[in-house]
Amino acid sequence: MGCGVSKSNQFHKSSGKAIRSAILIQRWYRQYVARTEMRRRYTWHIFQSIEYSGEQAQIKLYNFLGYLMDNFTPASNERNLISHIFRENEVCRDAEWERYFCYKNIEVPEIYSGPHLTFPLTVEQAVGLVEAFRNKKQLHSRYVLQLLLETWKQLRMLPNINRISTCHSKEITICGDLHGQLDDLLLIFYKNDMPSLEKPYVFNGDFVDRGKDSIEILLILFSFLLVYPSEVHLNRGNHEDHIINLRYGFTKEVLTKYKMHGKRILKLLQKIFSWLPLATVIDQKVLVLHGGISDTTDLGVLARVDRHNYVSALRPPKKRHQSSASLSVDSDIDEDIWSPNKMFLRRKSLTFLKTVPRDSFQNRSLQDFSDRIQVNPADELCQRRPSVFNLGNAAPEKEMAASVSSESLSVIDEWKQILDLLWSDPMNQDGCVPNEVRGGGCYWGPDVTEDFLNRHNLQLLIRSHECKQEGYEFCHNRKVLTLFSASNYYDVGSNRGAYVKLGPDLVPYLFQYQASSMIRELTVRQSVGRTERSALKVLREQMFAHKTDLICAFKTFDSDNTGLVCLSDWASAVESVMHLDLPWRMLRYQLVPCKTNGGMIDYHEWFDELAIKGPNADHIDQSLLETLYRHRSTFETIFRIVDADNSGFITIEDFRQTWMLLSVYLKMEITDDTISDLVVTIDRNQDGSIDIDEFMEAFRLTDKKSRLERGRSMFMGTATDLTKLEGDPNI
Amino acid sequence: MGRAVNVGTSATFLLHFETFGPSAADYREAFGLFDRVGDNKVAYNQVADIMRALGQNPTNKEVNRLLGMPSADDMTAKRVEFEGFLPMLQTIINSPNKAGYDDYVEGLRVFDKEGNGTVMGAELRIVLSTLGEKMSADEIDALMAGQEDENGCVNYETFVKHIMSV
After folding, report:
1. FRET pair for A452, CA 20 to 30 Å: which of A308, A609, B20, B147?
2. How many domains, chain B?
3. Nearest-CA neighbor of A345 among A330, A361, A366?
4. Scanning every residue of chain B, which has its alpha carbon at the shortest distance from the alpha carbon of A600?
5. Which pLDDT value is given to residue A547?
6. Annotation marks residue A546 as catalytic
7. Mean pLDDT, to the nearest integer, of B17-24?
């Protein structure tokens, strides 16, 4: 190379030119980096907005169903369709549970090539299980049930808040969300070794949903929990919740992998999830929990709650009667439970200006109800019942305090504590506000962190719940650490995963990784490009699903009906419909790639290029198809709820009932004839039942230009599915 | 004005600017993307990057001058709102210092000692890390990825076409 001096001699004559040239290249490079960074940011923003609005939709749906539960007679058919998800303890005494979950008469056939487990479990077996899953084996349902039963027994002995220490110079490893991505867990074990007496771990929730190996991750974590009960600690996440699992894929994964016994496995998992501890404290100084805190979070209260009563975090628990032995399966119990709410409702209705009077609900059927409903059920819920939406507004409940028993109020308080813990996100501004983007928990600010840590004599809060590009992120003056362990979460190359190690000095050491060999070969530009294309694809789907509303919005800016709008109006219209708070002007060319007309946008042209292909859809109304397409995730969720025995099929009659439910929820007009048409189209083999999966597959978005038909929305698929769709430049 | 090379999504975005002229609304969107705090402002040390994201090509020195020659602390601690940012951006837009394909090629030709259309990758690395607004080793690696042939030479016309296409 030569030394610096001789080089500069060489350039002496043209040094001015050399410098100018260098600067030119440097400037260009920095511009390239800045543009790439911008693309990366808005791509991220797209994925995150859509993800959170899905969570919000799920909560709204659940609240709506709860609302129906509250307001219809016990005997109504519609209520029966959904009541089972609110009936958390079908069988109550331990003996009965043991009978229900009995694995002993499940035979393991000779041809089974997966691992055989014997209990008590040994380290070798736990390690063997990891190997087996690495080799794509599946654990037999007999062993799954056995393992889960042992786990259940173990978890019941644990407190709500685990207190552990880094004594003996042990470093504790903490992992964030895994979301069914087995590759990431295997990578962590490879880099950091598996749990052992010398290698304690804390897993911070969200083990399941979205990824395709959720059950395998659970089985691995539970095995190590059984083998090393003092070294392995699990915190519950907001996805350890059967209601959320209905939408985000875990329920489906289990039913697909375990066709015969999936239902029992899911039921047992419901109990296990409710018994997962809520938080872990390390050396009395570092608090690890999944979501976050609010200005009312109190570890004292959290330590005392009966956490297993919260089978789903989205609803407060059953009131306990004096003798638990007298609990019965009768659905009237639910009415009792909600009596404090009914007192709320009665008082509220006096001041309400709603069109449907409260008293008349008692004897109405869903059919009658749908004629009268004028308002968005979700909004009504905010006012009327302690839903996850209005917990942030303590005031209305305080008004009722005088007339409601303090027991009920403390149930609400407890519930809010747990909800905040599992669902909250940090924000940069001071204060604490309800987290309306997700629909549950709060946004909390640096002042709340400061106050909370001081009050509890803590120095650091480690949480997960949010995907971060580098796998981790500090905020609130480095007092809050977000840790996310599912790499490539939104798409291949979207983000790294991370885990943290804490020694006795309690200084966090962060380790990052990315679980795909493909990644290392891509340049930054290619990686950003791939993720960007995926995000745009998803966004186009979403926009197309709102076609009617969008065209309506465009028309308000186009009073002369020219079919053209200017860019500003286009952007305003789109945001008013989509509510995703995205940089639409910047995205416009990627979303609507057609020729412009003097700076104006032809808003019909793009929609014409795409079409929803329904099942033999010609005779079905386009706008119905569009509604179906837009809400297909909600539909699938409701179908799975209605499919009480988790068989994957629902009867025609239930299908009809479901449609009535949906039409109320979505404020859609839907006639009996339309439903009959739909039924005829879908029940192909005329056997009186409908295959849920087949129904969902039937609704797809097709691009007339592209040879590739798009499948379902990416959030019902996995990163692997997406990768398969890559490669077509038209997408 | 750079030639409108029609590949890549950000190129078409800039094409839009060049054809129809940008508006404050476009700039405001980009500005918002870089606001990590939520106070509708960005840090001084982000200003140059936002301008670059919007298709401008200022040197760090030019931006610092516009910011009033802030200290290193100021760069991280001080923030500017959009209304303060916009005039600075306008100045950069209106400055005559635009570089195109020919300028880049001419610039690289300075280092072409043999006049054969190639420069030594190694020399380029030294120049970029020691002269002008120095680049870090990582930045240089990223820039040069895949550009050197088996002799360590870079064909600079190809190189410029490559860098202008992203």
Report:
1. A308
2. 2
3. A361
4. B20
5. 83
6. no
7. 58
